[in-house]
Amino acid sequence: MIMQKNPILTQKNVITQTKNILSSNIDGETIILSVIHSKYFCMDSIATDIWSFMIEPISIEDVVNKLIKDYNIDASHCTVEVLAFLEILLEKNLIEVVDA
After folding, report:
1. Suppose 61 and one of 11, 70, 80, 83 were both cysteines; which one would form an S-S bond, judging by CB atoms 3.0 to 4.6 Å apart?
2. Residue ranges of the domains in the chain?
3. Do 35 and 22 contact (CB within 8 A), yes or no?
4. Mean pLDDT per segment of 10 residues, for the chain of length 100 residues?
5. Single pTM value for the model
């Protein structure tokens, strides 16, 4: 049996930015530095919106609902895309799952 390093995310999970990162917004995009891994990440405008929602703990469901409202997009497509994006951030240790 293979053990997963990180849990699989669901809409009910509450997430937040990890503490060992630095980020800055430049021309509508966010640049993130992982202090632990000494790696930079660049986020486009929608990813920047998602990133800004996670300054404080927030449920993934609330992230999706904000994006649906702000961008008038399909709920199921938004959910799939957000979960995939957040899985990457979790894998890169840029976000963490916290207790609700």
Report:
1. 11
2. 14-19+45-98
3. yes
4. 64 96 92 92 96 97 98 96 96 91
5. 0.88
Which token pair is 13?
């999970």
CA distance 7 to 60: 14
| Residue 23, number of CB atoms within 10 A of its CB | 17
| Rounded-to-integer distance, Cα 62 and Cα 55, Å | 13
What the block records as the tokens of 90 is 């979790």
Q: Which two structure tokens, joined as six digits, stand for 64?
A: 């999706």
The C-alpha R_g of the chain, in whole angstroms, comes to 13
CB atoms within 10 A of CB 64: 21
